[in-house]
Amino acid sequence: MTTIIIEDESIAAERLQWMLNQCETPVRVQKIIDTVQEAVEWLSKESPPDFILLDIHLADGSGFDIFHKITITTPVIFTTAYDQYALEAFKVMSIDYLLKPVSQELLEKALFKLKVLRPAQDSAVDYKQLIQLMKTANPIYKTRFSGKVGQKIFLVPLSDVAFFLADNKIVYLCARDGTRYMIEHTLENLETMIDPAQFFRANRSAIIHAPAIEQVKPYINSRLKLWLKHGTRPMEIIISRERVPEFKRWTDL
């Protein structure tokens, strides 16, 4: 497969190119572009690649400006540090929306989706079939995370996780044995990497793991208080009022 990378941060573009080379079927990068204008000119003149890797914030504007200037029928995988554009992305030719830092696992998952959804060259596109495939495709979730304690790095199985906690812009994986590991993911990024049947976003600061829940009790202002297994003393987590109905559905209370 071939692609172009539209990204104004050279380090991010080089990292994406390196990750594409590590894929089971390496992807050839035809061009790295850092502006809307250059992207429009290149796509207007050259044969389209199999897909496009597109950042949203570019040196001279928004990645969405490209769609306003020319017609694009090539599948797009968005790569961005911002989650608020996801809905707008899926109004264009997006097949996936990856939050930075993009992981190898999620990138390969997006490429797998591209292969599944890509029609044969001589076939007409069956959009009903594409939608059904997107609904039924089995997602691939992470089974472990790497985390730091001091200068040491550990591999932590997902089964050991009690909850993820954001504290002063640092995110921790909090294990059931009481250990806290610093990890390089945002909570928003984590939500795309773990099974929503097992993990729940309790509030702005915490994602909890179902097997770690020891007790649930009503709390003031229509909230809920949870106790989670975390070392010798359970950790208290508050479910925000607006999240309570969804939490009850999640736990089937």
CATH topology of the largest domain: Rossmann fold
Q: Strand percentage, roughly? A: 25-35%
CATH architectural name of the largest domain: 3-Layer(aba) Sandwich
**Count of alpha/pi helices:** 8
Query: Which residues form runs of ≥5 with pLDDT under 50?
Result: 120-125
CATH class of the largest domain: Alpha Beta
Number of strand elements: 17
Q: What is the domain total for the residues?
A: 2
CATH level 4 superfamily of the largest domain? Response regulator
What's the SSE pattern? Answer: EHEHEEEHEHEHHEEEEEHEEEEEH
* Mean pLDDT over all positions: 86
Based on secondary structure, the structural category is alpha/beta
Major sheet details = 5 strands, parallel
User: Kindly, what is the distance between the CA atoms of the first and last residues, rounded to a whole number of angstroms?
Assistant: 47 Å
Radius of gyration, Cα only, in angstroms? 21 Å
